[in-house]
Amino acid sequence: MAERKATELMERIVSLCKRRGLIYPSSEIYGGINGFWDYGPLGAELKRNVKELWWRSLVHHRDDVTGLEATIIMHPTVWKASGHVDTFTDPMSTCRHCKKLVRTDQVWELLAEQPWGQAIAKLCPGGQYQRQPLWQWARGKGIRLAPGLALICNLDAVLARLDAKAAQPGTLPQTPEQLFCELATLDPATTGQVTPCPHCGGELTPPRRFNLMFKTNVGPVESDDNVAYLRPETAQAIFVQFKNVLETSRQRVPFGIAQIGKAFRNEVTPRNFTFRSREFEQMELEFFIRPDEVVAQLAGAVARLADLNGAANLTQPQPNWGWEVWHKYWVEERIRWYESIGLPRTSLEEYWQKPEELAHYAKATVDILYKFPFGTQELEGIAARGDFDLTQHQKTSGKSMEYFDEEAKAKYVPHVIEPSAGVDRLILALICNAYTEDLAPDDKGKLEPRIVMRFHPRVAPIKVGVFPLLKNRPELVRKALAVRDLLRPHLTVFYDDAGAIGRRYRRQDEAGTPFGVTIDFDTLGEQGPELQDTVTLRDRDTMKQERVKIDELLPRLLPLIR
Ligand code: GAP
User: Which of 96, 110, 192, 427 is the most exposed place for a label (fewest CB within 10 A)?
Assistant: First the structure.
């Protein structure tokens, strides 16, 4: 039930995104292309705001972070050194029945979303074999929903095998996964246990590794000698340019390099709208720190997380911080930033990866998760990567990545903390967070349903709607255009004179515009001089209106959007 509600909510959100010009399927007139999405007029503004706020908070508002903008295609050896050529893979299986490709580690997740998976889970709660309901389903709806499932293709044989198991205590499936495999297997003696295709129930092939990098060729001739890759992350360019940035920026460790840009991954199963796309953008920071031995040498002792009383005092970096404290500091900084753009802390979760889940180079990784309607999923990963990347590039290129620390009078390869966020996932989180349905009065005061996108004013695509009360009164229109021109150099304004004022408010509510300014007859001084040059300022969320002098609009609004 909850799952159906979440699916319906996502459908409404996807539909609003299309209708209001937030996000469209790429190349839609040709049927779209799976895993690629375009941002429409409102989406493009939203995305620019998010990237601008990230950049401003990290690069402009700090002395210890500097920016970089590198190319998407780099020397292919970068990806050999980083390990991506050899290990940036996902396990993939093909369905022998419907021929679809499936990421093997996502089978159960995908199956839980499919009507046939949900039907069997309901008929056999907890994976307990229920002969009669299964038999009925397999002769009815199951034929259409799971045509590749062994139970559907050979009902008698599969049920006979399960009946025989039922007669032998302890041999029946104990979990839903085991039951699904049983129902997908026709002849265990020849195929072993079959894992079902989430799409049709057919037999999946054993997994094979599939490299996620998109390949291309540089130059007019396609050959193995000029293969290059579209970058699967922006981070590697930062490591490769570490020395250049160090020399030209005159930064001293600890310091960071930030980059925003496109990344490409040939995901086996792009899904959940833009959440897992094949082309997306990342906002990555590589923050270089002293190795703990150097901190100990300089500060006497290294502050560790256990020495500190909670995370509240982690706002001012200290010279005795070891990597653990820097890592937690960046987790806190990033959560504070998400809060500043309207994602409440309660909508986020910190997931500290278990030692067995860590990538081989990571000392610790925290995923910041957002509670999407389709599940609580990763928004950003913050990894303590030690000196793995710089050392790899040093070994492979033969160029030193060492830093001479004047204070410590020592040379070392800096260690790194990497907060790595996905722009598109964040946009999706902001959209899901903003989406609200409520009731609002129409022009006659009758309550009608409204969709309102409660974007934080900082990220809202349009900041202010400007409306002349009537479009056929030139003096109102003249004044409204003057207000628009006054505001426009400082914030994004949408001027709208079409239709009843209530409908215009409603359109801006759906676009997530936090403020509305209406120019009426009072503005012209027709009701008395005291109201002349005042307008109504409407708040999207409370729908309250107040009279404000035109001169006061900018001082009122600017602090709210910056
Ligand atoms: N440099 C580290 C790195 O790339 P990652 O966890 O693979 O780490 C970082 O990616 C972030 O990039 C993720 O938290 C997510 O927000 C975003 N991301 C990764 N793959 C994505 C995809 N296929 N579609 C959209 N965003 C993705």
Answer: 192
